[in-house]
Specification:
- This protein is an all-alpha fold.
- The chain has one domain.
- Helix content is 56%, strand content 0%.
- It contains 4 helices and no strands.
- The relative contact order is 0.18.
């Protein structure tokens, strides 16, 4: 887990493909049939939130001279990467995230949603 987070932290601007592939990996691990609990740990979620804040801040600074930047929104279920093997994928479903800010926004929203579901199941 440390290696993936390290790659995410050094690559959002310079190596967007590495960043989106890392987000896709964490998304698949968190939402697969047997979710990997290490992805949902508070430390990982906090580090991802920090990366998200940094990326939003950089986007805001870069777009300062342009019109107001759009807030990133969460991708719909049909636009998210597939968590099933190739033969079970729907036609047109992407294999990975395409844009870094949407990738981390969707990943965080998924992790927060899963956290809420676990808390409801406990009560």
């Amino acid at each position: 887990m440390k290696s993936v987070l390290w790659l995410l932290s050094i690559s959002p601007d310079k190596h967007q493909s590495i960043f989106t592939k890392g987000c896709t990996l964490l998304y698949v691990l968190a939402t697969g049939p047997m979710p990997f609990q290490a992805v949902r740990s508070p430390k990982v979620v906090e580090e991802l939130k920090g990366l998200h804040r940094l990326m939003v801040r950089r986007q805001t600074v870069a777009a300062k001279n342009k019109r107001l930047p759009k807030q990133p929104k969460v991708l719909s279920a049909t636009q998210r990467p597939a968590t099933v093997p190739d033969w079970a994928m729907r036609p047109g479903q992407p294999r990975e995230f395409g844009e870094p800010l949407l990738a981390i926004t969707t990943l965080l929203a998924t992790l927060e949603h899963n956290k809420e579901e676990q808390e409801v199941a406990r009560t």
